[in-house]
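Late entry, evening session. Most of the bench is empty. Finally got around to the prediction I had been postponing all week. Sequence below, unchanged from the version circulated by S.P.
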Amino acid sequence: MNQSLALISLVVDDYDRAISYYTSVLGFQLVEDSALSETKRWVVVRPVGGPGTGLLLARAATEEQQTRIGNQTGGRVFLFLHTDDFNRDFARLTQANVEFVRGPVDEPYGKVAVFRDLYGNLWDLIQPVSKS
């Protein structure tokens, strides 16, 4: 069997605002932005440099969904962004005024810092320890 996790749905308040943040601030690439109806779009962003899992930016359509924006995991780190150069990306994100709430620290699994995205979701920026 060959399976992979293709997309993670991330509830956002506005498609264009989310696209701008994830592409301009985090440096992701816009993979797809297709209209599905007058009010719904299929918007996918993905970190540059790999065919890995993408984020489906899903605009909240109900009051209940709106309550989940920025808190899909009850305050735990939600997403894990691996990098091949922690110092480069930490400096770039800091310069872009991304709010780091913990770190950077060296852990047995790699160098890591926790940041908060536009909506308040917590992310780990990680340069994993080389397994060579």
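Two things to note before I forget:
Helices lie at 15-25, 63-66, 86-95.
DSSP finds three helices and eight strands in the chain.
Will write this up properly tomorrow.
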